[in-house]
């Protein structure tokens, strides 16, 4: 993986790295202008070429420390989100819905259970623990086209 490795620090040809909150290695030194860049993206770009806008680099085996080029795959952001959400959940939660949950929870005092009892997504109830993870930033929602979000919300979200 690198020239020098510990649980929290890594020295590579791209610069010194630390792990961020999401578990990715981030370059902290300013060697070759790589400061604040994700290590797996630098490795991919160095070997395969530039990453087009709207694309991400996916770790095939799910291990964010395995930055072997054979483990890195170019995917559209949409396909990447769809892949991860489909593996963990039956539905995708848009940012606009999470913002509604945050408002009701923090401003109106709604419990996670009350949110779960009052909102359906794709006709299914979202568990209170799942809602808590979204509201507290442990799971990230996806962004949808702002022009289409009203139709999306009408189709997938209903108040019971």
Question: Short description, anyone?
Answer:
With 160 residues, the protein is an alpha+beta fold. It has 6 helices and 9 strands.
The N- and C-terminal alpha carbons lie at a distance of: 51 Å
Main beta sheet: strand number and arrangement? 4 strands, antiparallel
Average pLDDT rating: 79
| Strand coverage percent | 15-25%
Structural class: alpha+beta
The tally of beta strands, per DSSP, is 9
CATH top-level class of the largest domain: Alpha Beta
Q: Tell me which CATH architecture of the largest domain applies here.
A: Alpha-Beta Complex
Which parts are unreliable, with pLDDT below 50 for 5 consecutive residues or more? 1-5, 145-150, 156-160
Shape: elongated
Radius of gyration: 19 Å
Q: What's the number of structural domains? A: 2
Helical residue percent band: 25-40%
Describe the structure.
With 160 residues, the chain is an alpha+beta fold. The protein has two domains: 4-82, Homing Intron 3 (I-Ppo) Encoded Endonuclease, Chain A (Alpha-Beta Complex), CATH 3.90.75; 89-159, no CATH class. The chain is built from six helices and nine strands. It has helices at 39-48, 77-88, 95-106, 112-118, 128-135, 149-156; strands at residues 4-5, 9-12, 15-19, 25-27, 55-59, 72-76, 119-121, 124-125, 157-159. The strands form three sheets. A four-stranded antiparallel sheet has the order 1-2-3-4, with no helix packed on it. It has a three-stranded antiparallel sheet with strand order 8-7-9. Helix 4 (112-118) crosses helix 5 (128-135). Mean pLDDT is 79; it is low at 1-5, 145-150 and 156-160.
């Amino acid at each position: 993986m690198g020239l020098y490795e510990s649980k929290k620090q890594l020295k590579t040809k791209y610069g010194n790295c630390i792990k961020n909150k999401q578990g990715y290695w981030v370059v902290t030194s300013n060697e070759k202008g790589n400061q604040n860049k994700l290590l797996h993206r630098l490795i991919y770009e160095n070997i395969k070429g530039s990453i087009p806008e709207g694309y991400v680099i996916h770790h095939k085996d799910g291990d964010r420390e395995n930055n072997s080029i054979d483990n890195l795959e170019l995917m559209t952001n949409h396909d990447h989100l769809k892949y991860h959400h489909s593996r963990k959940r039956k539905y995708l939660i848009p940012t606009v819905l999470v913002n509604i949950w945050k408002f009701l929870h923090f401003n109106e005092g709604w419990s996670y259970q009350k949110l779960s009892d009052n909102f359906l997504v794709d006709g299914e109830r979202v568990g209170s623990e799942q809602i808590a993870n979204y509201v507290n930033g442990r799971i990230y929602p996806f962004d949808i086209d702002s022009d289409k979000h009203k139709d999306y919300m009408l189709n997938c979200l209903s108040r019971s």
